[in-house]
Amino acid sequence: RTMIRVFVDASVLFSACYSASGASRELIRLSIQGQVALLISDLVQEEARRNLNAKAPQALPLLDQLLGTVPFETVVPDRHEVAAACAYTELKDAPIVAAAVKAKADYLVSLDRAHLVDVPKVAEGARIPVLVPGELLRIIRNQSS
């Protein structure tokens, strides 16, 4: 069975660095163990770095460590792919959603309920379920049991 492909946005990377006990960190662990394939974009890295720098600079070394050790697959959408995602996503999130689509992700995982997780048209437009990390962990656990 092929590994599930999970695109994580900056909020998930931030959370994985900031909190040792959350579902975001658990996804990182599953990736290191080879149980899920984690996908990110350059923009996700930049945004996570910027947000950590502003809100939790003590966690920045961990971000560098994760980016160096986790087998992330990096996807960079082109401007046409981003423009297409603008049809069903807010402008600031379009590059993220476009990258998830380009990566053929099985799931897009975010902690941004306002703009991504709880916005049905995003998932419909991208044809990718958009979940918070905890929801995805439940799905993964149910599959493996």
Describe the structure.
With 145 residues, the protein is of the alpha/beta class. Helices cover 57% and strands 12% of the residues. The chain is built from nine helices and five strands; from the N terminus they run E-H-H-E-H-H-E-H-H-E-H-H-E-H. Strands 3-2-1-4-5 form a five-stranded parallel β-sheet, sandwiched between helices. Helix 1 crosses helix 2, helix 1 crosses helix 3 and helix 5 packs across helix 6. The longest helix is centred in the middle third of the chain and has 14 residues. The protein is globular. The two termini are 14 Å apart.
What is the first-to-last residue Cα distance?
Answer: 14 Å
What is the number of E strands?
A: 5
Biggest beta sheet attributes: 5 strands, parallel
- Tell me the radius of gyration: 14 Å
Structural class: alpha/beta
Q: What sequence of helices (H) and strands (E) makes up the elements?
A: EHHEHHEHHEHHEH
β-strand amount: 5-15%
- Order of strands across the biggest sheet? 3-2-1-4-5
Percent helix, as a range, is 55-70%
Total number of helices: 9
Rounded mean pLDDT score: 96
**Net shape:** globular
Uncertain stretches of 5 or more adjacent residues? none
Keywords:
alpha/beta, about 10% strand, about 140 residues, five-stranded parallel beta sheet
Brief summary of the model shown:
The chain has 145 residues and is an alpha/beta fold. It has helices spanning 10-18, 23-32, 42-55, 60-69, 79-85, 94-102, 113-117, 120-126, 133-144, and strands at residues 4-8, 36-40, 73-74, 107-109, 130-131.
